[in-house]
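[step 3/7] fold_predict: job queued, chain A
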Amino acid sequence: MIPDNISLFTWLDVEEVLVRLSQTGDWPNWLHYARTYWDQLSLSIHPGKTEDVKKWLACEFAPRFNEEKMEIELERDIDNESRVLPVFIEETDEQLGRLRVKPSFSRPVAIRRTVQEDQQEDEIKPHVVAFHSFKGGVGRTVQALALAMALVEKRKFKVLLIDGDLEAPGISWHFMQRMRPPISYVDFLSLIHGDPDANATKSIKLAANRLRDALVNGIYIMPAFRNMDKFMSLDIKPEHLVQGSKDKYILTRFLSKLGEELGVDFVIIDLRAGLSEISASLLLDPRVYRVLVTTLSAQSIKGTKLLMQLLARDAPSRRSDQPLPSVILSQVPGDYPSEALDVLKKEIQSDLESMWVPSDDSSNDEPTPICSVTAFDKDLAVLPESWDKAVGLIKKSRFSDDLAEILDWLPNVTQSVFGLEEKRISLSEYANSIIYAEAGNIADYMRIRPLNRLVSEFSTRVPIAVVIGAKGSGKTLTYLQLARSKEWSRFGSDGSRNIQVNAVVVPVLKPAILEPEAMAIVNEAKNNSAKNLRLSTPYSWEDVYDDIRDRIQEDVHESKWRDYWLDYIAWSSGFEVTKQGAGRRFLDYLRENKLNVVAIIDGLENYFLKLSSDEKEQTAVRSLLQDVPNWLEQQVSRPLGILIFIRKDMVLNALPQNSSQFIAVYRNYELNWSSVEALRLFAWISMKVNALESEKINMLQDLGKEQLAQILIPLWGRKLGRENSREAISANWVIYALSDYNGQLQARDVVRFLSLASNKSKGSSLDDRVLVPQAMKKSLLPCSQEKVKDAGSESKDLARIFDKIREIPDDKKLIPFSRKDLEIESNDLELLENSGVIRRDGEEYHICEIFRWGLGFGLRKRGRPGVIDDAKR
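[step 4/7] structure written:
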């Protein structure tokens, strides 16, 4: 039956009925094709199917088909005279071949059943981005130019921008005010159309060579015409290239080849508005990143949805590497209701999502439909002719932020080996320089959640806390950053917090070994505190050290040590230096002068060398950890605070009876590095030296593990090999390789791994990542060796066990191992297990990767290292 919205005025309406039948699948197998003319309808069918034709026409054109006369009745004329379209039938043995469809919005001459044509399998790089709009005047050209600028300035990519609107060129007018174009889009079309070489190699090289002189603001510009005299005579159009070519997406291929020859990362083309054949060849290529621009007007929205339907029908995205089109809602007024805008966005996103029809089961990941909003800007309503002025206005606008979703939607592109080599060098040098905080050359640092909690909980009062962390967890780094800040409010402020208490930072104890730059930082902080507190020269580091060593020899109670510690704080601030009881009087001085102080202490392991066995040392440290904070907590208005940075093993030695209870009190501030924090640190360091795009560096704290892993793909790839390899997921592999069996890893291990892997990646020809897989694997051995040293220096018991393991022959150090293999005492095995070095599996033991390599363990069974298999799981 004839659809309700079709009236049979002419033969074109009959053709429309047949076209819809071919698209919906209601096309008989015996019907080869149908051709409509102004004076007849011609049908080609299998022999002996004439009666079937009559029944089919009677059904589909009811009640307009006259079976006896074999004609379709059209609408009568003004005089009520009959008008008909005769039907002619031709029986033939012709077999129905595969229909080769050209990318076109026009109807085919012969209407046939729609047969799905094989999609082009080749991926195009650089990617082609096509801007289109159903109607003009919606800001399409401005959006295309703004995206090109954002890719160049924010992502540091190279871009070729083409004015493909051959009927109403926009970019061309502005560009011609800046310089005389060396080559145009029309020139390019003419060159490749007349090139006898199927790949048009010489023509593409010629065009690229000329375009090198058209680099403006970091963008290669190709206008529609070299001069506007050509505007009125257009001999070669994009659709002409498709005619006679076996490749129906020939224009996409040649544009991408041009971009490749030019060395750009993206080719952006601004297309003609409407359902124009000038735009069809690119819009109907599912590999092209199609950006549809519309305003909020009903006509523009409906036209855009119509275009989306056409694309869904004629150029659907059928594979995971074929993107959905995205939509930009342009020129949105600032006072437009946000609720209505959200409803419209969700509606468009839903329509886009329905276009995604994967044709294989290789991936379960579905794309997220993109519908962005760009605000109305009166300064951009009418762009000035001057290129520089137009670009200047776009830079001042919000477009850079509004197009963030579109930027994220575009794929990560392969960078040049030269660019990667620069990144490897800078990453290696920077990471190597910050492995040890004692160097003092880290002007900035990434604040992890424990430190965020510390700042958050002490925003209105001076902090009193014990910050526990293993060797390499960032204790000294945080201590130095506090000293560098000189004030608690400056240390705590990150732009989002309002630190209401202002306290002078006073370094009291420091690590024994500091490089000159770090030493200068703590000395400056100490002198600055005395000056701001209006006090005299503070007690020297050497005098504090000597005084502590002398008093350790005394047999005094913890309360006496509390007074000693308070005196050290006062003397280090320059208050009544060397006078006994100065610490108590210091609090009165601070209250009277309305001043606040936060004392910071680090490097206790250098002052208390026999803590594990000496009761006097234990008393001194126990007093510092318990009595001093408790006493300060009870002070009225509390002008004095304290932050103590200490290793966990020292806490266990100083508080053997209630250490777990004590650690629980300060659990929120413990410098534990989770897998998420570690990935965040990888990203943060890489972004600091532009080894990764740094746009999201301030958002890292809000990103989860999956989001961080995605951001890190340009650093080390998604897998530890090519995408189709059976290698482990890179992010999982790295976390597993650097973690112990308690799930703990340290910041120093992260930094050291980055330094080694980037250094070993230098000179690699692999061009899809900064860190190459082989370099990452080879970095495990030196990382593990240093980890064993750090753990041994932190725990004498572990050092003793490690020394014993090193003496065992390598042929016995195989994984898994038993107690008999290594002849290790059960108590030592228990210590290794509690420390996360090994884990027990029945009667056998496994050693984690971060310790395995440094202690010389091999695999009992042949195969790939366990780290890869475990990371896969």
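[step 5/7] annotate
Confidence is low (pLDDT under 50) at residues 97-101, 115-121, 357-366, 861-873.
Residues 562 and 627 are 6 Å apart (CA to CA).
exit 0
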